[in-house]
Amino acid sequence: MTDRPHRTFEDLVAEGASVPTEGWDFSWFEGRATEARPSWGYATSMAERLGRASAVLDIQTGGGEVLDFALVKAPKRPPLTVATEGWPPNAVKATALLRPRGVAVVAAPEDAPLPFADGAFDLVVSRHPVRPHWEEIARVLQPGGTYFAQHVGPGSAFELVEHFLGPQPDEVRGGRHPERERADAEAAGLDVVELRAERLRMEFHDIGAVVHFLRKVVWMVPGFTVDAYEPQLRALHRRIQDEGPFLAHSTRHLFDVRKPGGHSAPPA
């Protein structure tokens, strides 16, 4: 870490551009970037929910890391757990990680209907879905079932986004707004039991971490490549060298949603 300020722009960018991006393991960023975690502890809370469920669906599981953690921590594993993932490299990684836990990973495009029967699950979970498909979530939930998820909120990391793309219109900055998502959930016939939101500090300590982050979280700067954004990368590299870590803020919100009817499990 002590020699990082002396490494060249080219070395740092080449390193950030070479690291594999599959899955949602962010351990490579240790010492290079930080992000505060929401106070509700999503993965641990998910583990508690798993212990009371009989049939679980994890939507857009990524590399399966969060579900794997929750299954290990759960007081009791559900008899049935299934996950979906739309990006083939992630589906391969998730299958390798989750198969030993007895979890089937189903390849399913993010925008396609869920390939499951009506009322198949009493618990549906998701961490950072591209967008929630409320009608499909409502369809596959049993009456009395729960959707428990952590979503990315509006304007997340927009200090970084706008460095590369310039000022964004209000409709873009306001996308993923939790109150809008609440309205969509209710329109699908679901009851929002709890909705919590937090704004969290992020720091990027070198330009290599920025490159890797934008390659991994592809919707931040669509079409990002080092060549296409080299001027902005060089400017940010100089800024970090002169002023220290680049500060941004992520936004997250937690949904605890129930499908009316049946016998709901008691809240955690």
TrEMBL record:
* Swiss-Prot/TrEMBL keywords: Methyltransferase, Transferase
Q: Which Pfam families match?
A: Methyltransf_11
Q: Which residues form the Methyltransferase type domain?
A: 57-148
BP terms from Gene Ontology: methylation
Q: Extract the InterPro entries matched here.
A: 23S_rRNA_MeTrnsfrase_RlmA (IPR052939), Methyltransf_11 (IPR013216), SAM-dependent_MTases_sf (IPR029063)
Report a single Gene Ontology molecular function.
Answer: S-adenosylmethionine-dependent methyltransferase activity
Under SUPFAM superfamilies, the record lists: S-adenosyl-L-methionine-dependent methyltransferases
Protein name (Swiss-Prot/TrEMBL): Methyltransferase type 11
Organism source for this protein?
Answer: Streptomyces azureus
